[in-house]
Structures are given as structure tokens and as C-alpha cells.
Amino acid sequence: MEFDDEVWVLDYKTGTPSDFMSHNAQMQEYRVAMQAVYVGKIVRCALLYSEGTLCEISTPTIKS
Q1: Is 80 exceeded by the pLDDT of residue 56?
Q2: Tell me, what's the pLDDT at 62?
Q3: Which residues sit opposite 55 in a β-bridge?
Q4: Mean pLDDT, the chain, whole residue set
Q5: Pseudo-torsion of CA 58, 60, 63, 64, nearest 10°?
Q6: Of 15, 25, 49, 52, which has the fewest Cβ atoms less than 10 A away?
């Protein structure tokens, strides 16, 4: 979903929130891909489980 200053990438899952960590790497790959498309916008990612729980994937901290 695209907004003025950010883009949300949602992935719908039929599992449970206990599976959250197993999907983290996949969502980080989606984030990198979308950052290349939506330059200058914040890209946020979340998993939406079929039972209704929304779990946002945190943005990795870049160390300088």
C-alpha cells in the first residue's frame, strides 16, 4: 500500500504469529526490493495472519 511518505508491504499468512521469525528474512528481501522502487519513501513490512494478528517487521539498524 502506498502513502505520501511511506509504503507498506503486507504478506498474508495462514500460519500463526508463532511462525513470525521464520518469515523475517523473506520480508527483509521484500523491503530491499521495494526500497529500490520507492526511493525516498520509508518502506515498512508486516505479516497479516488469517486469524487477524498484524506483526510489523522491524527495520534493520544500520551501523556506521
Answers
A1: yes
A2: 53
A3: 47
A4: 87
A5: -110
A6: 52
